[in-house]
Amino acid sequence: LNQSQFKQLIYALEALDRDKEVLKLLKHHKLYKENSELLEILGNHYKKAYFHSNSKRDLNKSFEYLLMALKLAEEKNANKEIYSIAKSLAFLCLLKKDSEKIQKYANQALLEIEKDATCSLKKMEAIAEVNLFLGNIKIAEKYYEEISKMEDLQITDKINIHENAVRAYAC
Questions:
Q1: What is the mean pLDDT of the chain?
Q2: With CB atoms 3.0 to 4.6 Å apart as the test, which of 33, 115, 132, 155 could cross-link to 140 if both were Cys?
Q3: How far apart are CA 141 and CA 132, in angstroms?
Q4: Buried-state track 2-38, b at ≥16 Cβ within 10 A, e below 16
Q5: pTM passes above 0.85
Q6: CA 56, CA 59: separation in Å to the nearest integer?
Q7: Non-local CB neighbours of 34 within 8 Å, separated by 6+ positions
Q8: Dist CA 88 CA 92 (whole Å)
Q9: DSSP letter for each residue of 77-143
Q10: Tens digit of each residue's pLDDT (9 = 90 or more) over 101-143
């Protein structure tokens, strides 16, 4: 499978709650330690596991893999990956109640977002979430409202955005 097909397989298995297979496939992929996208998927997998287990081990594993992903994304100057990963790290810091690092990663995400000339869902969601993490509620609301008006938004995207916002707001 090429990388795109491999990622689709991982997402499909996650949707079917086949977590053990996801971990096995990711950790046995020959390039996973050298690929920021695969490391991000692995980090996000452990983040989701944390929501079910409330285990600090899952939270720490998520942080570890996302830090590795961020380093690789920075090395290749992949700003969309950087802001996606930095946003996830800011969220993990929110869960850990580490306000200094929330600021660090949230601001890094915002700096990288500014370099993205597109008007994509991913970008708008990142702006909304990062501002929510930083306590800029009015800005976050504005972007969540814009997202809600998008006509081609998939129901799974709506659910994920809502769940992320509720978790962040609760923290």
A1: 91
A2: 132
A3: 8
A4: eeeebeeebeebbeeeeeeebbebbeebeebeebbbb
A5: yes
A6: 5
A7: 72
A8: 6
A9: T-HHHHHHHHHHHHHHHHHHT-HHHHHHHHHHHHHHHHT-----HHHHHHHHHHHHHTT-HHHHHHH
A10: 999 999 999 999 999 999 899 999 999 999 999 999 999 999 9
